[in-house]
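Re: the request from the purification team.
They wanted to know what the chain is likely to look like in 3D before they choose a buffer screen. I agreed to run a prediction and write the result into the notebook, where they can find it.
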Amino acid sequence: MKSGPDPDLRGDYSRAAADYTVEQDWGSYTADEHALFRRLYERQANLVSRYACPEWIEAIGKLDAAREIPKFADINKSLGKATGWEIVAVPGLIPDEPFFRHLAGRRFPVTVWLRKPAEFDYIVEPDVFHDFFGHVPLLYDPVYADHLSEYGKGGLKAMRLDAIGMLARLYWYTIEFGLVQTAAGVRAYGAGLLSSGGELAYCVEDPRPRRRPFELERILRTEYRIDRYQDTYFVLESFAQLMRDTAPDFTPVYARLKHMQPYAPDAAD
């Protein structure tokens, strides 16, 4: 989930519209930036076949985005036909309310700038590679796409209920760092995993992190760290479970959980 902007964020917010969208200005990308995007793509392409969920692998094969930074308008032609979604260009991290409104309207905000070569292995803020490579493919999956739209509607409601902190944990442990059970075993579907050169293998194979079954209330109470690999991952049975288990009204859940102590990221029980 995105928040901000603040003066320390990267990105040119001076040309953003009221909803924080900007023009992609694809022609301004340099040859070096396209080459860096291609290197990032090639690095991850060698990993995702082993660690990504089948729905993501099927979708990325349709995007033809390996050679250069993609043109959002071209992607939207096929994405709109598939699930009614579109991607919109934004200067970087955006505040919660416009972020939720975009999701609720089936618009996914994608950052326009690309990391520097020195940030090849790690970047603090999401860039165009993270947003596009990690998030966009699953927007072609109808069930996942419907869930993300409902999440946006739920975010607007959570703002009114002062429950953004809890709902942010759901985004973190699903949309960004979620795992799902497949016929081949546990696989990644979270964008933060799929766009990571190191954590993608770690989340599936390493014995150290806890891999817990998806449980909504546990997720809403589990804190997370942004400066290291995850201590805990939550594993879905399927995207249908994600849609089903997040469909009920969260209002009574928020009311109950706000009086409970949150779990630490590495809590064992």
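For the purification team: Strands lie at 86-90, 107-111, 179-182, 185-188, 210-213, 232-236.
Please add any questions underneath this entry.
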